[in-house]
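Hi everyone, sorry if this is the wrong subforum. Our group has a chain we'd like a structural model of before ordering constructs, and none of us has done structure prediction before. Sequence below.
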Amino acid sequence: MSNTTKANPRTTPLATPAAGETGPALMGSDILVKCLEREGVEAIFAYPGGASMEIHQALTRSRQIRTYLPRHEQGGVFAAEGYARASGKAGVCMATSGPGATNLVTGIADAYMDSVPLVAITGQVPQAMIGKGAFQETDIFGMTLPVVKHSYLITDINTIPRVVKEAFHIAQTGRPGPVLIDLPKNVQQQRAQPVFPTEVTLRGYNPDRRADDAALSEILALIERAERPVLYCGGGILSSGSAAELRKFAEATGIPVTTTIMGCGAFPETHPLSLKWLGMHGTAYSNWAVAEADLLLAFGVRFDDRVTGKVDKFCEHGTIVHVDIDPSEINKNRSVHLPIVSDIGYALSRLNAMLADRPVQKKFTAWHHRVAELKAKAPLNWRLTEEVLKSQHVRDHMGGDASQVVLPQEAIAVLYELTKGEAIITTGVGQHQMWAGQFYQFNQPRQFVTSAGLGSMGFGYPAALGAKVACPDRQVIDIDGDGSFLMNVQELAMAHIDGIAAKAMILNNQHLGMVMQWEDRFYHGNRGHTYLGDPELRQQVYPDFVAIAKAFNVPCERVMYRRDLRAAIQRMLDSDRPYVLDVITPYTEHVIPFIPAGKTVNEMIWQ
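Answer:
Right subforum, don't worry. Here is the predicted structure as tokens:
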């Protein structure tokens, strides 16, 4: 089955009037769908229920919008996020009232933390029942207030066109984020002649923030005076579509570039100026370079704790410039020397124009040599340790030959090689997420789709489905862990039934790997319920993902031995169907480098 939009043959679509015109009287549910069509929506991830079934009925009459049926509302919102992160357009999801709506909350919070454009629609009980404890009633408007960019409870059918247009405008402009639309069932069932607005005017909302040239000139002056500058870039580069401008600026100035995890792909990681990403599990050399920097240009970032560690020691001796579109982020986590509120895309394009007239004369030759030394000191690599080779657990699994064990880092490196670095990669949350960021090289924007700020387990596979819907001609692979994958394993059904050929490569160590790593480092290896296998089955793998996938009619195979890895990955890539590859890995591996929470780069574990 393809991912192309299908016309529904069962009903005749209603004509859509031009902007500003009135049409025939429509039900509120039909007006909502017409509004979504006008915003260019082609896919919605929606699970029906009593308070949203009118909208689902209206969706069956749409020739433009294809409805994808997740098997859990959380899977639907994560899929909508994957769609948004891969495409840059707002993802759309929908659920019924009460438990359907509350099942969206984690995904809405996830989109809020990572600044992802999302429009979440919820059915609500009839207005007359609101506040009376009606069946499947929750105050989803109030419940989500801390984790949305904006929210609406529609009480007048005539406001639906305005609300929907505003919702998409808010979600996709400025600093992107999630918007909630809560629509009571009685409003869905009312009739009115819709008037579709042609523009949006919101008092007090100005998403077009632009730096003045004086502030940007000061950046160039600081670069001229610097000896050891570093560019520290985040998701704002991707949101603003300014990856090309960033590369132009970095090459014009010769400044090394490091990114956050959200910024992976904003600057090509195979570029000589790339330091890959920094922070708790970022490259050692990027963390060292920032520690030694005398000028840090922080573009489209928020100085989150996983990057900074002990925040007052982050780039302790450097001058910090912070450019961000959201004024609330300025001096929130880290006090800076030159704060600039601006769209980073505009700032970079103006900086590049100014550089064309006023090239930076400074050459950072000595600094480049120093950065090369740091890279050579601690490159990202992996090796079979004596601990693994002598592990009875590993030997039992390998039939006595521990040299055939598959290390998770190598599995990702082989995947990178076989995909030529061109796949869209999604992840769950845990060790596999960090290894994916380390050992897959991201050279394109929107290529790495991961839950960074909230760290939501279960994100990876539904996000891969959404990314594949957005980019049907791209190879999309979820690199996942056994614990994270199991949290939304039911979305194998959506993959099969809707014909979404996203793949999953599970790095299966039978443990909650990242928590286990902290147990090893800080709790003397005492296991606090982080073993996910079945102790009664001894050496057998539990659960049996091959059998689970078979039940969903999705192909799956298990890889136990290193000699079988490459061919198995190639078979996964060659498949034109959803596919699961269960790769068994040892639980003894730790993600290195590692800066413990709240510590400094001087306390980094890097070998």
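For your construct planning: Residues 26-192 form a domain with the Rossmann fold fold (CATH 3.40.50.970). Confidence is low (pLDDT under 50) at residues 1-16.
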